[in-house]
């Protein structure tokens, strides 16, 4: 183990999922890896998949849209508010 924090808390009663994770990287790099499509697409999908960011809007009320492509070129689209 690396000693970095990783908590996964599921509150089923209120339908709330809380993730807390500590990274061995600076705050700006971690933020960039989640908010810049050219970085996010390098790591977001599972190992055998590729990721394609379609849109990201992190403003209040914004929307995100990703596509994961499996090894057989099947598309799995994900989006949320």
Task: Give the helix proportion (percent range).
Answer: 10-25%
Principal-axis shape equals globular
Mean pLDDT across the residues is 92
Q: Write the H/E string, N to C.
A: EEHHEEE
Low-pLDDT residue intervals, each spanning 5 or more residues: none
Question: Based on helices, strands and strand pairing, what is the structural class?
Answer: alpha+beta
Radius of gyration: 15 Å
Widest sheet: strand ordering:
3-4-5
- Strand segment count: 5
Main sheet overview: 3 strands, antiparallel
- The proportion of residues in beta strands is 35-45%
State the end-to-end CA separation. Answer: 34 Å
- What is the overall number of helices? 2
Notes on the protein architecture:
It is a single chain. This protein is α+β, with helices and mostly antiparallel strands. The protein has a domain at 26-80. It is built from two helices and five strands. Strand 4 and strand 5 form a beta hairpin. It is globular, with a radius of gyration of 15 Å.
